Amino acid sequence: MPIAHEPISARSWLFAPGDSEKKMTKAMEGTADIVLIDLEDAVATENKVAARGMVHDFIKNNPAQRARLWVRINPFDGPYTLGDLAAILPAAPGGIMLPKVYGRQEVEKLDHMLSVLEVANGIEEGSTPVIVLITETAEAMFHTGDYKGAPRVVALTWGAEDLADSIGASSNKNPDGSYSFTYELARSLTVLGAASAGVTAIETISADFKDLEALRKRAESVRRDGFRGMLAIHPAQVDVINEAFTPTEAEIAEAQEIVDVFAANPGVGAIGWKGGMLDRPYLARAQRLLKLAGK
C-alpha cells in the first residue's frame, strides 16, 4: 500500500552545489530546514558524473542529518536522471527535487524509478518524498492543477528563469524589477496547485542574495498569499526566510483569541469581534496558523 506523505513543514530550502563538499558542509551546518544538494544547474556538465559520488558519500557520512539532505536531480529531458537516482538512492537522501517537469506523468515515472531503487537498496518502498518544480516549461504551466494524489509529492514550487528560456522571453522582469505578468501567473498557479493537491507551496529564489531587506518583504508578502517556505541560494538568506515564515507572537495570540471566541460560542457561523464580524473562514485561517506555529 502506498505511503501517505503529509505536506512538509519546512520554511527554508537552501541550494548547495553537489560538486563542492565545502559548500555542502556549510549549508548543512547552517539553519536551513532543508539542504537541497544540487546535481542540476549548479554542476557543470563535465562534473555531473563525479558529483553523484560526492553527493552519495556526503549523505552517507552524515546520517544524523539525512532527513534534511534532499537532492535536486537532473530533469527527464536530459540523459542524467536515472544515473543520478541510481547513484544517490543507496545513501537514502531525505527527499528528491524534480525540476523541469512537463506534467504529472513525470512525477509518476519518478515514483516507479524510486520504488525499484528503494527495494533494491533495502529502503522502505514509497518512503522518499518529492518536491516538484512545476512551472519551468511552457507545457507544465497548463498542468499546475494536476498533482492531487500524485505519489510522494509533499510540496510544489516554481521557477522563472527556465520558464523564460522555454518561451523565448528576453527577460522575466518589468523595468522596476518586479516579475512580469507571465511569471506572477506562474507564482499564482503554484500556490493554487499546491492548495488543490493538499501539499505545501514553496516560493522560488531571490537571486539578489545581498538585498536581505527586499528578501524579507517578499517572503512576508508570499506567506500572506499562502506560501509556507522559500528557496534560497545563499546561507545569508536562510535566517531571514526562517523568520519571515515563522508566525509572530502577536499573530499567534490573535489566532488563539479567534479560536477561543468560536469555542465559547459553539454552532455560531458568524460572531462579532473587536468591532467587526468573524465568520468560519477566519476560524479556519486561525487554526492553520496555530498548526503552523505548533500550537
UniProtKB/TrEMBL annotation:
Record's keyword terms, sorted: Lyase, Magnesium, Metal-binding
Gene Ontology molecular function: lyase activity
Cofactor requirements of the protein: Mg(2+)
Name this polypeptide is given: CoA ester lyase
Domain (HpcH/HpaI aldolase/citrate lyase) ranges: 11-235
InterPro entries, alphabetized: Aldolase/citrate-lyase_domain (IPR005000), Citrate_lyase_beta/mcl1/mcl2 (IPR011206), Pyrv/PenolPyrv_kinase-like_dom (IPR015813), Pyrv_kinase-like_dom_sf (IPR040442)
Family according to the record: Belongs to the HpcH/HpaI aldolase family.
